[in-house]
């Protein structure tokens, strides 16, 4: 009921402004990612299957059906490792609400304000779900895409004008459509593949609900349901305090440099130390890093050979920052 009926006029201006920021961040990341091989492959596959549609391919000529366009654009955004992250879990909710929202708004002719409102509400649901799964889903080996799909379903459902009953079905269908293994996302282009599917299947969940398709409404909280399967915690708090604060305001973080968000502060500390002490590489024997997630990061501390490896390598971030006294898009 909340996301279906909450008045757009009651959304705080700051939440709508943050939606604009997320949209700009997603466009910027997609501009970098559109030429990456993984994005090109899926774009060409989708074009070969259905060469025409209602929704634009970003930074490319042509259109595709709404769900396929969202998939292609989300994959491009995520491929560049430059899209905004949720501070609690590093899930890339912004990419999904932006790409699904724009694709559906194009098809429907929605207003900009309606698009931003749908994004705020979609982010709220995905953020709350993923907060309940953090760190449980990661401990069980699942990627953030298991939660971001809800952002796509709710954003789309809001633009479609689904009533409370149909919106509940969209969420239920999304819950049983989700997936994505964290190990694959950490080490391969499966990361952006997950994002593309979350966008596409989120739209399909909302369209299916609109058409009358019904899933199990208790799928989230039922025994052997979504939260059980993905190791949810504090599940009773998911719906508490709705409308008091907005996750897109409190927890959405835009990247100022590319790569895994947890490494940004570490890279900044490294280049600041290099500048402060006027260090040159020959003076540096080792760099000591202290962080709660160090055990996980140590498993990824291998010599990077590609974008994925570099984006998830804390030694690469630190070494580059120490040598170059900065870290940027060219790294």
Give structural notes:
The strands form 2 sheets. This protein has a two-stranded antiparallel sheet. A two-stranded antiparallel ribbon has the order 3-4. The protein is mainly α. Helix 2 (13-33) packs across helix 5 (93-108), helix 5 runs parallel beside helix 8 and helix 8 packs antiparallel against helix 9. 58% of the residues lie in helices and 2% in strands. It is built from 17 helices and 4 strands. Strand 1 and strand 2 form a beta hairpin.
Would you report the number of β strands? 4
Q: How helical, in percent, are the residues?
A: 55-70%
Class computed from helices, strands and strand pairing: mainly alpha
Task: Count the DSSP helices.
Answer: 17
């Amino acid at each position: 009921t909340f996301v279906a009926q909450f008045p757009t006029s009651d959304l705080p201006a700051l939440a709508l402004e943050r939606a604009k920021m997320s949209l700009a961040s997603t466009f910027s990341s997609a501009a970098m990612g559109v030429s990456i091989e993984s994005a090109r492959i899926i774009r060409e596959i989708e074009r070969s299957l259905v060469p025409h549609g209602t929704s634009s391919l970003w930074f490319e000529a042509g259109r595709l059906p709404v769900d396929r366009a969202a998939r292609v654009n989300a994959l491009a955004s995520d491929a560049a490792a430059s899209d905004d992250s949720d501070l609690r879990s590093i899930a890339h909710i912004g990419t999904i609400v932006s790409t699904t929202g724009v694709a559906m708004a194009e098809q429907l002719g929605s207003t900009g304000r309606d698009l931003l409102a749908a994004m705020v509400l979609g982010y709220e649901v995905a953020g709350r779900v993923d907060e309940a799964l953090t760190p449980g889903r990661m401990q069980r080996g699942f990627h953030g895409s298991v939660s971001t799909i809800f952002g796509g379903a709710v954003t789309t459902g809001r633009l479609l004008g689904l009533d409370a009953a149909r919106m509940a079905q969209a969420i239920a269908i999304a819950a049983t459509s989700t997936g994505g293994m964290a190990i694959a996302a950490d080490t391969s282009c499966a990361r952006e593949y997950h994002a593309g599917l979350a966008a596409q299947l989120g739209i399909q969940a909302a369209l299916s609900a609109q058409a009358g398709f019904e899933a199990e409404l208790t799928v989230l909280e039922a025994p052997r349901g979504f939260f059980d399967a993905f190791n949810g915690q504090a599940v009773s708090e998911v719906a508490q305090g709705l409308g008091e604060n907005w996750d897109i305001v409190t927890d959405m973080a835009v990247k100022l440099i590319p790569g895994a968000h947890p490494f940004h502060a570490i890279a900044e500390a490294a280049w600041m130390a290099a500048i402060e002490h006027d260090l040159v590489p020959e003076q540096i024997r080792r760099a000591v890093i202290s962080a709660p997630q160090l055990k996980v990061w140590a498993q990824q501390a291998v010599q990077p050979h590609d974008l994925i490896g570099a984006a998830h390598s804390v030694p690469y971030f630190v070494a580059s920052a120490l040598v170059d006294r900065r870290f940027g898009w060219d790294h």
